[in-house]
Task: inverse folding
DNA sequence: ATCGGTTTTGACAATCATTATCAATAACGG
DNA sequence: CCGTTATTGATAATGATTGTCAAAACCGAT
């Protein structure tokens, strides 16, 4: 049975409060700063659970770190992520979805998975950088 | 100045000989098995250089490992990769390319980069798995 | 409210890929 | 062939993530 602990809730809340994608390390650090004595391993486990249940999205940053984000829409979708501040926009991508599936099928590949994410600088950060 | 060492050439050759994407670790291991005394750090450096010069493609596997592949066509392109054996097909993706750029622009994002790769089981591995 | 079995936690060690260090070596122009 | 200087490679360092396991917390039943 799946138990309801304040730790899992804390991770859930922290994710909801975050503007965009965050790493497990960062999330743990900010929870600690807020006074929570939660352990690092627990944060990793909670995030993995959330991702497994579809309550959070996970992706790999360009540097290879695993990032997580609270996921409002239950369905499958992709993201437009600011490289600088982490702000995220959820993207509708049915076309691309179908393109990926069709491409895999055309070459006889089965069990297709895909990684489709767009990184960039959001308007605010673009202004700052220029 | 950029020097021409047998080590760099060995990495280049090993990449050319590989069927699909390989990790730096694997490449180093197979070079060692072939009798080459090349060092691990050197393999990493050579791969980073090749990727920087556009002579190799690099991407992150679903597990987060960095993978490299000799890159024939100089242009920008994407891949369909077998999760099991690493066999790779280069994909034409102009449509998706433009979709990514347009999506970024529509939301005011600048300096767009994207990660678009499809993983699956190639025909041969599909057969084996069933 | 208490009990008991079971899950979860958390400090710490272990793992794994990758990068930094730095003295020894080798490449290239002269 | 020589000297300068980039490159190598053994090893240590880093940093994220996962495994371990005893102690603590959760929850349904009493």
Result:
């Amino acid at each position: 049975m799946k138990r309801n602990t304040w730790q899992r809730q804390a991770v859930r809340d922290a994710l909801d409060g975050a503007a965009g994608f965050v790493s497990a390390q960062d999330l743990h650090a900010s929870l600690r700063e807020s006074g929570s004595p939660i352990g690092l391993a627990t944060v990793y486990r909670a995030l993995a659970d959330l991702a497994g249940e579809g309550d959070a999205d996970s992706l790999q940053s360009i540097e290879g770190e695993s990032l997580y984000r609270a996921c409002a829409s239950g369905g499958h979708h992709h993201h437009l992520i600011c490289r600088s501040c982490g702000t995220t926009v959820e993207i509708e991508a049915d076309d691309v979805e179908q393109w990926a599936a069709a491409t895999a099928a055309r070459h006889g590949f089965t069990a297709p998975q895909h990684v489709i994410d767009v990184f960039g600088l959001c308007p605010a950060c673009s202004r700052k950088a220029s």
Observations:
- The interface with chain A takes residues 60, 62, 64, 66, 80, 82-83, 89, 91, 93, 95-96, 99-100, 103-104, 107-123, 126 of chain B (CB under 8 Å).
- Residues 84 and 125 of chain B are 7 Å apart (CA to CA).
